[in-house]
Amino acid sequence: MTDVTQQTGTYEARMGDYFALMKPRVMQLVVFTALVGLLVAPVPVHPFIGFVGILCIAVGAGASGALNMWWDADIDAVMKRTQSRPIPSGRVQPGEALGIGLALSGFSVILLALATNLLAAGLLAFTIFFYAVIYSMWLKRSTPQNIVIGGAAGAFPPMVGWAVATGGIAPESVLMFALIFMWTPPHFWALALFVKSDYGNADVPMLTETHGRRVTRNHILGYTIALVPVALGIAFTSIGGPVYLAVALLLNGWFLKGAVDIWRRDDADSEADQHAVEKRVFKISLYYLFGHFGALLVEAVLRTNGLGGW
């Protein structure tokens, strides 16, 4: 770890440094999918309760990020894309990150239980535990299936949002979970294809390192094919409709084409254009998830006005 204090004197952490601990980019996706899960639920929620529920989910996501950065500080210091994070750069001390993560975890879960219901709070608590302990402390450094299994942590937010509104679990919330769960491996493996040396230098057993790029390309295509029926199936549930189906058909065709393009390439092709296709598919994967949940939100608004659904 770089000792910034020895090189430049004592560094006093700023609010932005602590905020960076909570992985704000990841938090945006968590908040958005949780909000959609809450709004598409068949039970109306008082705006203030909804606000508190989403706030707690956001804080819980931030807590997970802080705990992850605390545990992964050693490998973050090795990987180029993470060296500037608050802990390896010396802007925040590991003990501070641990304290913030634990405090925010307790605050978010307890407040969510008091403001909404025990199921929502329990799901949030399990999500934090899954990301910080099962994924970060165990799976990430022990198996090339880390992203596959660990993807569950990022898939729970819409289920939590649904539980905030309904106090229960339903096929629709499970399908939203499945959509994110199946999307996560091809999304991260596309990234791993063009930051391969980073994971190898940090001894993280990413699939690209343990089985090679050819196997990774095969897995990206396989998971994308398996993702398509999950995404399209949501269209025929109570939260789907023609607008969602049209968007899903477009996005799945786009994403599947990208997966096929990756599958057809080899290392020579990738190196020749500096991983242009892999980078493009990674960006497509971001549009893919936001597009699906955005379409669900549109369907919810239309249903409210008596226009949505089949």
TrEMBL record:
Subcellular location: Cell membrane
Principal subcellular localization: membrane
Keywords tagged on the record: Cell membrane, Heme biosynthesis, Membrane, Transferase, Transmembrane, Transmembrane helix
InterPro entries xref list: Protohaem_IX_farnesylTrfase, UbiA_prenyltransferase, UbiA_prenylTrfase_CS, UbiA_sf
Topology relative to the membrane: Multi-pass membrane protein
Pathway: Porphyrin-containing compound metabolism; heme O biosynthesis; heme O from protoheme: step 1/1
EC code: 2.5.1.141
UniProt enzyme class: transferase
GO CC list: plasma membrane
Single Gene Ontology MF annotation: protoheme IX farnesyltransferase activity
Segments traversing the membrane: 26-43, 49-71, 92-112, 118-135, 147-169, 175-195, 220-237, 243-263, 284-302
Keyword RNA-binding: no
Reaction(s) the record says it catalyses: heme b + (2E,6E)-farnesyl diphosphate + H2O = Fe(II)-heme o + diphosphate
One GO BP annotation of this record: heme O biosynthetic process
Recorded family membership: Belongs to the UbiA prenyltransferase family. Protoheme IX farnesyltransferase subfamily.
Other remarks in the entry: Carbon 2 of the heme B porphyrin ring is defined according to the Fischer nomenclature.
HAMAP family named among the record's database cross-references: CyoE_CtaB
PANTHER family, alphabetized: 4-HYDROXYBENZOATE SOLANESYLTRANSFERASE (PTHR43448:SF7), PROTOHEME IX FARNESYLTRANSFERASE, MITOCHONDRIAL (PTHR43448)
Quaternary structure and partners: Interacts with CtaA.
The protein's role, per its UniProt record: Converts heme B (protoheme IX) to heme O by substitution of the vinyl group on carbon 2 of heme B porphyrin ring with a hydroxyethyl farnesyl side group.
Annotated protein name in UniProt: Protoheme IX farnesyltransferase
Organism of derivation: Salibaculum griseiflavum
Lineage start: Bacteria, Pseudomonadati, Pseudomonadota, Alphaproteobacteria, Rhodobacterales
